[in-house]
Automatic annotation (TrEMBL):
Its main location: cytoplasm. Keywords: Activator, ATP-binding, Cytoplasm, DNA-binding, Nitrogen fixation, Nucleotide-binding, Phosphoprotein, Repressor, Transcription, Transcription regulation, Two-component regulatory system. This is DNA-binding transcriptional regulator NtrC. Residues 5-119 form the Response regulatory domain. The keyword NADP does not apply. GO terms for biological process: regulation of DNA-templated transcription; regulation of nitrogen utilization. It comes from Nitrobacter hamburgensis (strain DSM 10229 / NCIMB 13809 / X14). It is found in: Cytoplasm. The lineage of its organism: Bacteria, Pseudomonadati, Pseudomonadota, Alphaproteobacteria, Hyphomicrobiales. One of its GO terms (cellular component) is cytoplasm. Member of the two-component regulatory system NtrB/NtrC, which controls expression of the nitrogen-regulated (ntr) genes in response to nitrogen limitation. Phosphorylated NtrC binds directly to DNA and stimulates the formation of open promoter-sigma54-RNA polymerase complexes. PANTHER family: DNA-BINDING TRANSCRIPTIONAL REGULATOR NTRC (PTHR32071:SF95), TRANSCRIPTIONAL REGULATORY PROTEIN (PTHR32071). The modification 4-aspartylphosphate is found at D54. PROSITE patterns: RESPONSE_REGULATORY, SIGMA54_INTERACT_1, SIGMA54_INTERACT_2, SIGMA54_INTERACT_3, SIGMA54_INTERACT_4.
Length: 480
């Protein structure tokens, strides 16, 4: 039986040589070219069992050539390589009908394995959907290996309705990924409905999800649609799924098993056509062991697990991310900003407990509060430095008021700074240091009930919600 023939197109002679050696050692016949015209001639003449091509060619972009290849030979697998390692590159490869996308540099063993897998699949394999859609914005930022893995998984999921479970720490961008799955997937023309389980009173979650009939409970004066009904034909994103009470978990499991639900107080089963994407910053397996989460529901939701890396695992993405957030701030009317080399190095040393959300908040704060166009290292030192710990028992001082505690804090801060002067931006830093424990204490006292916490603080509920988001305060409802 003759060896499979592989057509390789890349204008880089060194890459062609390396690919030729690796594929020839694997027993394949290899034909090499440095331009798209020759590749197209070979394909149109019926040559080759598989194509490996770079995106950027001297005479034509592979994304323009791919639809023609798929139209002429729909079952010919095409593997796309690219040094433009962005989310949209992976999506465009999928949109144009590529079998696989490989960001450069890649592992040659992985390439050989992918070639073997592609050749082993039935030739009747349905052709991937091609298209000419162009995208106006890039929803995910980063070229690190960790993000490349995410992009490739997302690209494979775009044309499926598989249920996805996104895990990751707070601030890693779980909702952003869920939106990307919707906006660039087969349900893009349907609604995207997000619901945060941790933000809804536990006794109202079932009504929130499934709707209720008039008179179903006290205060239900009219029929209300639930999130499943609102998401019909689209995507329902269930954020912080680990905070869902057991009763609601049982009803959700029934929906996933049977494809239908009933409203609270209703009797008629309602068919549903919704893709479920769930997310959690908690380890659901631990919750299962504690009896707080149904194991059967976990397996129903965890069809495709997707872990988002914390920012500290993708530090190399910091330059792209901070530039992106500065650009967003500029679109909102804030002055343009850049970081000098020392400031960028200071960013890389930070642990980022709040992840990408913390970085975005920092970028907006820098754009709003500092007059200079270039943010320097000392400014970042001040923004990211941990505040000194002030003990009320030090010396013979006694603190009998908040003002006295703040005065002690400031005294320690000034005396511990070079030349007795802390970095610029002190006013807003001090307000933030007071605001976070104040809001946290109010939320703790009201067991996470934001309506009651807003009333306690004397704030508008929307104002409180905005501060919780901007300050990256975690809210945990404890019931009661």
């Amino acid at each position: 039986m003759p060896a499979a023939s592989i057509l390789v197109a890349d204008d880089d002679t060194a890459i062609r040589t390396v690919l030729n050696q690796a594929l020839s050692r694997a027993g394949y016949e290899v034909r090499l070219t440095g331009n798209a015209a020759t590749l197209w001639r070979w394909v149109s003449q019926g040559e080759g069992d598989i194509v490996i091509t770079d995106v950027v060619m001297p005479d034509e972009n592979a994304f323009d050539l791919l639809p023609r290849i798929k139209k002429m030979r729909p079952n010919l697998p095409v593997i796309v390589m690219s040094a433009q390692n962005t989310f949209m590159t992976a999506i465009r490869a999928s949109e144009r009908g590529a079998y696989e996308y490989l960001p450069k540099p890649f592992d040659l063993k992985e390439l050989v394995a992918i070639v073997g897998r592609a050749l082993a699949e039935p030739k009747e394999r349905a052709a991937s959907r091609g298209g000419d859609n162009e995208f106006d914005s890039i929803p995910l930022i980063g070229r690190s290996p960790a993000m490349q893995d995410i992009y490739r998984v997302l690209a494979r999921l775009m044309q499926t309705d598989l249920t996805v479970m996104i895990s990751g720490e707070s601030g890693t961008g779980k909702e952003l990924v869920a939106r990307a799955l919707h906006d660039y997937g087969k349900r893009r023309n349907g609604p995207f409905v997000a619901v945060n389980m941790a933000a809804i009173p536990r006794d109202l979650i079932e009504s929130e999800l499934f709707g209720h009939e008039r008179g179903a409970f006290t205060g239900a004066n009219t029929r209300a649609s639930g999130r499943f009904e609102q998401a019909e034909g689209g995507t329902l994103f269930l954020d912080e799924i680990g905070d869902m009470p057991m009763e609601a978990q049982t009803r959700l499991l029934r929906v996933l098993q049977q494809g239908e639900y009933t409203t609270v107080g209703g009797r008629t089963a309602i068919k549903t056509d919704v893709r479920i994407v769930a997310a959690s910053n908690k380890d659901l397996r631990v919750l299962i062991q504690q009896g707080l989460f149904r194991e059967d529901l976990f397996f129903r939701l965890n069809v495709v697990p997707l872990r988002l890396p914390p920012l500290r695992e993708r530090i190399e993405d910091l330059p792209d991310l901070i530039s992106h957030f500065f650009a967003l701030a500029e679109k909102d009317g804030l002055p343009p900003k850049k970081l000098d080399a020392l400031a960028l190095e200071r960013l890389k040393r930070h642990r980022w407990p709040g992840n990408v959300r913390e970085l975005e908040n920092l970028a907006r704060r820098l754009a709003a509060l500092y007059p200079q166009d270039v943010i320097t290292g000392p400014v970042l030192d001040g923004e990211l430095a941990s505040p000194p710990v002030v003990s009320g028992r030090s010396g013979h001082q006694s603190v009998d008021s908040l003002g006295g505690a703040v005065e002690m804090y400031l005294s320690s801060l000034f005396s511990g700074s070079p030349n007795g002067v802390p970095p610029p931006g002190l006013y807003h830093r001090i307000l933030r240091e007071i605001e976070v424990p104040l809001l946290t204490a109010a939320l703790a006292a009201t067991r996470g009930n934001q309506i009651r916490a807003a009333d306690l603080l004397g704030l508008n509920r929307n104002t409180l919600r905005k501060k919780i988001r901007d300050l990256d305060i975690q809210v945990y409802r404890t019931g009661g």
